[in-house]
Design a protein that fits this description.
The chain is an alpha+beta fold. It is built from 9 helices and 13 strands. The protein has an 8-stranded mixed beta sheet. Strand 9 and strand 10 form a beta hairpin. The structure holds aspartic acid.
Length: 318
């Protein structure tokens, strides 16, 4: 070997081993990314989840605690306490959760219970089932120590009585009348989970169930790939199994943003221009990258990352 090559070889070995020591050092100090995103301007809820993730709590616990803030907020008229009733004046709630193991729980058309996302988690963890509905879900909640609460506030009652005058049912979903909360979290163990909770469409038919408690439609998590959650006109999300579709598109290699766009375009292409309604997705992949897309403008979501919680304006089809 020529002397120059020998010196070069020794030199490169030195650099490579110094680099790998450095890389090992970097890896040892690597702080896994935590991130929380949630539909609409659900600032406090997302902050709560993000801070729990920063403290090392599990993604599902963070998501359930986060969305509970909106469930308990009487001013949010599409979630939990203070949610708009169905046309008979009854507030009925839907929720679901899914964790990094692929386990899931769901409750449908539940009355008198505020924290239905936590109830969905209890269905997942404490029953042999995935989904409980109506009275059965309520009775299970009571057996687990949940308090019975009348979910109809004076304000939502007044608005429903106003609506009764002409009973014009237009399920338009926009920033004023919808902020169903869907949340996706990634924790320090690089595990993904999500929760979704809603009172559904204001003045819906008695017994109507939307996408939000339907695993695969309102929410889907695959811990190897990512997660997605939907908001908007549930009937349209169900028709394309929307959240599952977003995750499957990410599995095919699309970014969260591209996957949300493609899933929204699928709905748009199935509908005529006259059918005006909102559907929006948010998604997060295993690397903690996020994306969102909606049909109509005006959809925003919250993004907590690196200790900062900010509102992000989603791109939209129209
Ligand atoms: N997706 C919900 C439903 O159809 C409504 C919403 O997101 O605002 O019940």
């Amino acid at each position: 070997m020529k002397r120059r090559n020998f010196i070069f070889d020794i030199f490169s070995v030195g650099i490579v081993s110094a680099m790998s020591t450095k890389l090992r050092a970097v890896n040892l100090n690597f702080t896994p990314m935590v991130r929380s995103i949630s539909t609409w301007k659900t600032t406090e809820a997302n902050q709560k989840a993000g801070q729990m993730l920063d403290k090392g709590e599990h993604a599902l616990d963070a998501a359930v605690a986060g969305v509970a803030i909106e469930e308990e907020n009487p001013k949010n008229t599409t979630v939990g306490y203070g949610g708009a009733p169905d046309r008979t004046g009854k507030v009925t709630l839907d929720a679901c959760v899914m964790n990094h193991l692929g386990d899931c729980g769901s409750v449908v058309a539940v009355e008198n219970i505020v924290n239905v996302a936590r109830l969905a988690k209890d269905v997942m963890e404490k029953t042999p089932h995935v989904m409980l509905s109506g009275k059965g879900a309520e009775e299970f909640a009571i057996s687990q120590g949940y308090k019975k609460t009348d979910l109809l506030t004076d304000q939502s009652k007044k608005e429903w009585e106003e609506w009764l005058k002409d009973q014009d049912y237009r399920p338009i979903i926009n920033i004023e009348n919808h902020d169903t909360i869907g949340m996706l979290c990634i924790d320090k163990n690089n595990n993904l989970s999500g929760a979704c909770t809603t009172s559904g469409l204001a003045y819906k038919m008695k017994g109507r169930v939307g996408d939000s408690p339907i695993i695969g439609s309102g929410l889907f998590i695959d811990n190897k790939i990512g997660g997605a959650v939907a908001t908007g006109l549930g009937e349209e999300v169900v028709k394309t199994v929307g959240s599952f579709l977003v995750v499957e598109l990410m599995r095919q290699g699309l970014s969260p943003q591209e996957a949300c766009e493609k899933a929204v375009k699928r709905i748009v292409s199935n509908n005529s221009q006259e059918n005006k309604f909102q559907v929006a997705y948010i998604a997060m992949n295993k690397k903690g990258e996020v994306g969102s897309y909606s049909i109509e403008p005006g959809f925003t979501y919250m993004d907590y990352v690196n200790g900062k919680n900010k509102e992000v304006f989603s791109k939209s089809e129209l």
